[in-house]
Design goal:
about 75% helix, mainly alpha, single chain
């Protein structure tokens, strides 16, 4: 129900329910009964209008709550994704560092054992096993062909290191 506006621009003061009751109290009851019957359809329309307004407000409130809930879920998902990305980055960085340290350690070990006349052990440390470990830590890949190559090379190196050197050909003297 909108307040009416007078021609001067000020809202027209509508009488209150008490003022109406005081005016009707001065009339006989038959007039009051007739007036109430005449007012009843208007009151019903006004009541239905208010009920529709309330229902519309409730729908808007429910929609607002749904939107807030969806926004909160999206915010939580975004935070979870950011934490997951940070963990993934940290894991990748730790893998890089670990791969570098293991590779550098294996190369230092290969140089050390190579200088102590153990070339096969140096070959095992600096060969395909170094590449396999670096691939595993840095790239996070477990390549079967690279692993098989590292295994074969390690077997060959172990077999060669356990074999006795071939005897010198007959008739050759000691090498001085």
């Amino acid at each position: 129900m909108n307040p009416e506006i007078s021609q001067a621009g000020a809202p027209v003061q509508q009488p209150t329910g008490l003022e109406h009751a005081l005016q009707w109290a001065q009339l006989p009851p038959e007039h009051l009964q007739i007036a109430m019957k005449a007012l009843e359809p208007e009151l019903k329309r006004h009541h239905e209008f208010r009920m529709q307004q309330d229902a519309h407000r409730q729908e808007l409130e429910l929609e607002r709550m749904r939107l807030e809930s969806a926004q909160q879920q999206l915010t939580q998902q975004l935070e979870h994704d950011e934490r997951q990305a940070k963990r993934s980055y940290t894991l990748y960085l730790v893998g890089l560092i670990a791969g570098f340290l293991i590779s550098a350690g294996m190369l230092v070990g290969a140089v050390f054992v190579g200088m102590n006349n153990q070339p096969w052990l140096a070959a095992m440390l600096a060969g395909p096993s170094l590449l396999a470990l670096a691939t595993l830590f840095v790239l996070r890949k477990n390549d079967k062909t690279l692993n098989a190559g590292a295994e074969q090379t390690t077997r060959r190196a172990l077999n060669a290191s356990q074999q006795q050197p071939p005897p010198p050909p007959p008739g050759s003297g000691p090498v001085v």
